[in-house]
From TrEMBL:
<protein>
    <recommendedName>
        <fullName>DNA polymerase V</fullName>
    </recommendedName>
</protein>
<feature type="compositionally biased region" description="Acidic residues">
    <location>
        <begin position="947"/>
        <end position="959"/>
    </location>
</feature>
<feature type="region of interest" description="Disordered">
    <location>
        <begin position="891"/>
        <end position="959"/>
    </location>
</feature>
<feature type="region of interest" description="Disordered">
    <location>
        <begin position="54"/>
        <end position="83"/>
    </location>
</feature>
<feature type="region of interest" description="Disordered">
    <location>
        <begin position="565"/>
        <end position="591"/>
    </location>
</feature>
<dbReference type="GO" id="GO:0003677">
    <property type="term" value="F:DNA binding"/>
</dbReference>
<dbReference type="InterPro" id="IPR016024">
    <property type="entry name" value="ARM-type_fold"/>
</dbReference>
<comment type="similarity">
    <text>Belongs to the MYBBP1A family.</text>
</comment>
<feature type="compositionally biased region" description="Acidic residues">
    <location>
        <begin position="909"/>
        <end position="935"/>
    </location>
</feature>
<dbReference type="InterPro" id="IPR007015">
    <property type="entry name" value="DNA_pol_V/MYBBP1A"/>
</dbReference>
<dbReference type="GO" id="GO:0006355">
    <property type="term" value="P:regulation of DNA-templated transcription"/>
</dbReference>
<dbReference type="Pfam" id="PF04931">
    <property type="entry name" value="DNA_pol_phi"/>
</dbReference>
<feature type="region of interest" description="Disordered">
    <location>
        <begin position="1"/>
        <end position="25"/>
    </location>
</feature>
<dbReference type="GO" id="GO:0005730">
    <property type="term" value="C:nucleolus"/>
</dbReference>
<feature type="compositionally biased region" description="Basic and acidic residues">
    <location>
        <begin position="898"/>
        <end position="908"/>
    </location>
</feature>
<keyword id="KW-0539">Nucleus</keyword>
Amino acid sequence: MGSKKRSSSSVEEEVEGKIDAVTDNVVVPNPLEKKKMKKDKKVDETLSIKPMERFKKRKALDKERRHAAVSENEEEPKKPKQLRVESVAGEDHAPVVSSLSSGLPEFHIDVFKDLALADVKVREAAAEAMVKELQAVQEAYERMENKDFVEVGLKLEAVKDDGLKNCAPSVRYAIRRLIRGVSSSRECARQGFALGLTILVGSIHSITLDSLLKLIVDLLEVTSSMKGQEAKECLLGRLFAYGALARSGRLTKEWNSDKNTPFIKEFTGILISLALKKRYLQEPAVSVLLDLIEKLPKEALLNHVLEAPGLHEWFEGSTEVGNPDALLLALKLREKIAVDSSIFNKLLLSPFIPSNLFTAAHLSSLANCLKESTYCQPRVHSLWPVLLNILLPEMVLQVEDSASVSNSLKKHKKSRKCSSSEEEIAKNFQCFCDVIIEGSLLMSSHDRKHLAFDVLLLSLPRLPASFVPIVLSHKLVQCLMDVLSTKDSWLYKVAQNFLKELAAWVGDDDVRRVAVIIGLQKHSSGKFDSITRIKTVKDLMAGFKTESGCMLFIQNLTNLFVDEGNASEEPSDQSQTTDDNSEIGSIEDKDLVGTTGNSDFLKTWVVESLPSILKYLKLDLEAKFRVQKEILKFLAVQGLFTASLGTEVTSFELQEKFRWPKATTSSALCRMCIEQLQLLLANAQKGEGPRALANGLESNDLGAYFMRFLSTLHNIPSVSLFRSLSDDDKDTFERLEAMEKRLYREERNCGLSTDANKLHVLRYLLIQLLLQVLLRPGEFSEAASELIICCKKAFSASDIPPSSGEDEIDGDATPQLMDVLVDTLLSLLPQSSNPMRTAIEQVFRYFCDNITDDGLLRMLRVIKKTFKPARHQEAEDEEDDSDDENFLGIEEDEEIDEAKTVGKRDPEASNDSDGEDDDDDDATSDDSNGGEDDNAVSGEVGKEALDASDDSDGGMDDDAMFRMDTYLAQIFKERKNQAEGENAHSQLVLFKLRVLSLLEIYLHENPGKPQVLTVYSNLAQAFVSPHIAEGSEQLGQRIWGILQKKVLKAKDYPKGEAVQLTTLESLLEKNLKLASKPFKRKKSAVSPSKKKQSASWTRHKMVTSLAQSSTFWILKIIDAGKFSESELQRVLDIFQGVLVGYFESKKSQIKSEFLKEIFRRRPWIGHHLFGFLLEKCGSTKSEFRRVEALDLVAEILKSLVSTDESGQDASKKVMKSHLHELCDLIKDLVTNMPEKQSRRAEVRKFCGRVLQIISNLNLNRSFLKHLGSDAHAACEAQLGENFVNLKKVER
C-alpha cells in the first residue's frame, strides 16, 4: 500500500484513496498519511508529505481537464457528475458515476459506505444494490461496440496490468475498492466488503480468477516498511478476500469447465502459505479451505487440493509443532474423500476408523496438536466438535442412553449386555479421557485445564449417563475441588460454570442425577460440598421427585457402600491431605476421623445421605413408604447385623439377597447407621398424621415393618448382631421385642381409639429403646424394665404372661402408674438421642392428662435444681437487706431442701443479672454466673446457706427416688471436681431444657387445670432465681417463652373449684412485692462495667414485667372464680398494703401506670380502695407520690361515672360516701400547690376533672358544704372559671 508501485499509479487511484480514507475509512493510500490522520484528522498535510500531496492535486487537475475535454456541453456539471471529485477547502465528497455520455448506466459509489455499517440487513441490502447496478453496467458495457471511447474517457486506475480488460470501468473500480476495503478495521467494513466481493465475483463472470488473485496480492501487499498493526490489517484483508473467493463458487465452476484448472491448487497453496505466516491466521485459513472443500467434488479434492504445494509438508510437521488446524483439515478431508491417503499418515492411521484414531498410542502422538488448540481461547477450537462427533456418534449414543435408563433400575447392572459398538464407544471415550483430558490437559497449565472443562461441556449433549463415571474421574474431581476451595483461583469461575452446566444437563433425568452425585462424592470421599464450600451435591440430592429416582439412588449408594474396590483404587494419600486441609467439620465422630481412611469417610456420607433423600421428597404415602422401607433395610442390615459366612445372605422369607462389605464395618459406622435408623423411625412417626384404617395399620407403619424385618433377619443362622450383648442386655433386647409385638396386637384390636394411639406411641418408644440398648449397652436395662412394667400396667393384655419376680412390686409399696411412667421418662431423657426424645415426648403427650401432682413436682424439681454458689459469695451477700422471702415458694413437702433454700433467695437477686433486650418477649440474659451479681440475699438466708451441707442432693437418698435422681446425683458429684464443673453445669442445663419441653406439652394439653398454677409458680421461681435462669441464657429464655406463651397469654386459664383462693392470694402478694422491688447495684469496691450494668437493668425490667403480667393473670383467675366480697377481702388487704408501701416507703418502686392498669381492668378493686386512696393522697408527705397518685384517683372516678340512670344513682351514692375525703384532698391540693409548674398543671387538671364529675352528679351543694368557705378563695385562685362555674350552677 505504501510501495512505489502504488505511488506511481494514476491520478484517479490517488484521489480515490483519499476519498476512502476520509469517507469510508477503508484504505489509507500512504502509511504516513494514515498515521497523521489518527493523530489529528483536521490537519490536511505535514511537512513530510507535502510533495506527494502536490503531486496528487496536480493529477486531479489533469483529470478534470480530460473530463472537460470529452464533455459535449459545458453546462453538464449541473447534471449528475461524471465521476468527478471536487475538492473544496480540503474536503472530499463521495462521487457518483454517471455514464450517460458513454451510454453506461449509473453507479452510485456511496453504496460502499453502507457496506461498513454494523447493521447486517443494511450491509446485505447495500451489497445486493451494488451488484445489481454493476451487473447492469457490465451488461451495457459488453453490448457496446466501440469500447475505446469509454476506455479513454472513463478509464479509472491501473488499467494496464490489472487483467480486467473485459470489465467495465465501474466494475474494475468496485473490485479494487472491495479488495482494499476488506483490510479495513473500521466498524464492520471487513464483513461488508467481503460480502460484496463474494456476490460480485460470483455474479460477474468477466472477472477472471488469475486477475483477481493477482489484484489481491498487489493491493494487499505486505512490505517490510509496514508496522505490526498495518501488516496485520493487510493479512486479514487477504484472508477475507480469499474467503470471499472461496464462498463465491467460482472455483467450483472453474473446475466444472476445466478439470485441469490450476487455480484450485494455486488457491490451496496460497492459503497454506498464508496460514504459515501467523498463528492467528491458521484456523481461519483452514476454515476458508473447508468452505471450498464443501463445494468441490471428491475428484477435485484428490487431484487438486491434496496435490497443492506445501500441503504435504504442512501435514508432516503438524504433530511435532502441535498444529490443531492441520489435524482439523485432515479429518475433514478424510471425511469428504472417504479413502485413506498417505498424506495423512502422520495424523490419521490407516485404515481410518474410530478405534484406531482413539488408541492410547495414537492419541499420545496427537496430544501436542490438541494441547496447542488453546491459542484461540476463550473460544473453543473448531477441531474439538469434529473430534467429538467421531468419538460420540449421536445416533448410537441415543440408543445406548435409552438402554441405560431402562436397565439402570435392575438389581444388578453387571447382568446388562452391551453391544459391541457400545463397548467400543465406551472404550474409545475412556481412552480419550485418560490420555487427553487427564494425561495432557489437566496436568498442564491453567489455559489447558480451562480447555479440558470446555471440551467436557461440549461433549455433554451427546454424553450418555453411563459415561458420567468416565468424565467425573478422580483427577477431574480433585481438580474441581482444588480450584473451588480457593475463590482467588484463576479457574474459579470456570469450575463454577462447569458445575452449573453439568447441573443444567442433569435436569430432571434421575439417571444422570444419580451418576453425577455418585461421581462427585466417590472421588471426594463424600466431602465435595464441604471442601468446595458450595451446595452442588446438596442441590442435586434435593432434586429427586420420583420414586424410581430415589430407588435408583439408594441402589447406587448401597453398591458404593458394599463395593470397597472403588475407594481403594484412588490415591488415598493425596486426597486425604486435601480433605484434612479443606474439611469443615462434617464428621462429628473424632474417633472415626482419626482411625479410618477415605473409605470410612465415603461410607459415612452414604449413611448420612440415605435418610436425607426424604427431606424434599413429595410423594404419596404409599410410594414414600416404599422408599422408607428400602432405606430402613440398608441401615438395619449394615448397622445391626454381620454375616458370619461370606458377604452375601439370601432370605427366603423376604425373597431378597443382602450384601455386606468384605472388610468388617467399623463400630463407629454401625453406630451411625443405628442413629440414622432411629431418626428415620422418628420422622416416619411424625409424618404419619392421625391413625387411619384400623385394618391397614401395618401397611404404612414403618415401626411394625422394622420389627418384623429385624426378627426375620435375626433368625437367619448365618446372621448375627454386629456386637455381642451381655446377658442383661440380651434379656432386655428380647423382652422389648416381645413387648412391642404384643402391644402391636393390642393396637390392632383396639381399632380407632385413644388407646390405640397410646399403644402406638408406646410401641415406638420401645423400638427406640431397643435400638438404644444396641447403641449403648449396659445403660438402659433398668429403664427398659420399668417401661415394660408400665406397658403391662397400662394395658392388661390377655396374651401378656406374668412377669418374672424381679418385675413385681409389693402391693402396698406400689406407686401410681403415672409416677412410675414419669420417672421412667425422666430417667431416659438426660442421655437420649433426638429421636428417643421425640418418642418420649409423644408418649408424654398422650399420657399427661393422668399425671399426678407428685409426678409434676418431680419434673419441676429438676428445673429448680441448681449448684450452690461459692461460700464467700454468700458471705458477701449477708450485708444486704434481710426482709425478703421466698418468691412464689409454694413447694410441696416432697420437694428437696436444696430447692427450698434456693427459693428463699431474694427476687431482687435477679436485678443485677445479665440481659440484652428490653422487650418482654425477646429479652435474653447472658451466661454469667448469677452468684457473682447476687447482692440481695438476706443475712438469715446466707447463714442458712453457710450451714447447709455441700451435698446438694440431700433429699435424693430415699429408696422411692428413681433413676432421674441418680442422674442428678451424678451431675452434682461431678460438680465437686472443678475441672469437670463446666461440663456438669452444661449437662444439668441440657437436662432442664428437655424437661421444659415436657412441661410445655403438659401446659398445651391441659391449659385449664389447677396444676397450671403449680407449674407457673415453680417456673416463675426458677426464672427469678439468679442461680437458675442466669446460669444459661438459653434456659432463661426458654422459661420466659413458656411462661408468656403457654401460661400468661394462653386463651385458657385454671378454673373450677379446685383453684384455691389462698393460693391465688399468696401468688398475688408475692408478685406485687416483686413488682415493687427497686433496682439495686452491687456493693463492691470495683465498679461493674457498663455492659454488666445495662444487662442487670434489662434483667430487672424483665423480672418486673413478669411480675406485672402475672398479677393481671392471677386477677383474671380470681375474677373467674366468682368469690364473695368477704372472701375477696384478703385480696383488697394485699392491695392496700401495696399502696401503703407506695406512699410511705422510698424502696417501693411499683409503677403508678401498673396500678392504674389494674384499676382499669378490675374496677371493683379501685372502688373498694377509693376512700383509702383519698386518705393516703391527703396525708402523704411526698409531693411527687401525691401528684402521681392523682392519676389513680382519676381512673377510679372514671369507672364510677355511669351514663344510664341506675348507674348514676349508684355512682352518686358512692361519691356521697367519699365526698368528705374528696373535699379534704382538693382543699389540701389548692392550699399547698406544688412548686413545679408541671405538677401544678397536673393538680389543676385533676381538680377540674373532679369538679366536672361533681357537676354531672348534681352534688354541687354537698361538695361546697364539705369544702368549707375558707377554701373557696383558694379554689377560685387556683382553679379559676371551673370553680366559679360550679358555684354558679349551685346558686
